[in-house]
């Protein structure tokens, strides 16, 4: 959008925000069943532990890579039944956002897009390992982002 100035020249106004998903891909995945095949003979009362992490890197220009890592460790009693990990990544074109909106987009919005893909990949690994399907519960990335921002403000206030 342009506006005419007093001398007739066009001046560019505020840049419009732009968001575009370019690619979603698996960056890394692994599956371990250290107690197989003995674990299959035990009563299946799993204890599921989930570790979730996100990171982002600015690529050239307005392109950003966001990586969502899901690590799942399932135990039966004291023994590890399996460990499954997926690094689900995406390349996003993001421009025209102010700093706070950019942080939220990279820290919550993009991971929210990646999560269903990561969840499906974890489930596929688990099923291919001959264990019962594992459908992880949805994650509220907005709440996690807000908690992290509050933690960072508290740390900055105590410094």
From TrEMBL:
Gene Ontology MF terms: unfolded protein binding
Keyword Magnesium: no
GO CC term, one of those recorded: cytoplasm
Source taxon at top rank: Bacteria
Keywords, alphabetical: Chaperone, Cytoplasm, Protein transport, Translocation, Transport
Localization annotation: Cytoplasm
Main location: cytoplasm
GO process annotations (BP): protein folding; protein tetramerization; protein transport
InterPro entries named in the record: SecB (IPR003708), SecB-like_sf (IPR035958)
Oligomer and partners: Homotetramer, a dimer of dimers. One homotetramer interacts with 1 SecA dimer.
Function: One of the proteins required for the normal export of preproteins out of the cell cytoplasm. It is a molecular chaperone that binds to a subset of precursor proteins, maintaining them in a translocation-competent state. It also specifically binds to its receptor SecA.
Family in the record: Belongs to the SecB family.
Entry protein name: Protein-export protein SecB
Species of origin: Atopomonas hussainii
């Amino acid at each position: 959008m342009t506006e005419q100035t007093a001398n007739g020249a066009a001046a560019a106004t505020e840049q419009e925000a732009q968001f575009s998903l370019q690619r979603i891909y698996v960056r890394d995945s692994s599956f371990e069943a250290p107690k197989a095949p003995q674990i299959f003979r035990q009563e299946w009362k799993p204890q599921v532990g989930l570790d979730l992490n996100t990171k982002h890197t600015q690529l050239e220009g307005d392109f950003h890579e966001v990586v969502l890592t899901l690590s799942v460790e399932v135990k039966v009693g004291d023994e590890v039944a399996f460990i499954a990990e997926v690094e689900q990544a995406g390349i996003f074109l993001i421009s025209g956002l102010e700093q706070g909106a950019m942080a939220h987009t990279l820290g919550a919005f993009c991971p929210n897009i990646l999560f269903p893909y990561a969840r499906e990949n974890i489930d596929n690994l688990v099923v291919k390992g001959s264990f019962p399907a594992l459908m992880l519960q949805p994650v509220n990335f907005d709440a996690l982002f807000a908690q992290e921002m509050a933690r960072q403000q508290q740390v900055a206030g105590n410094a």
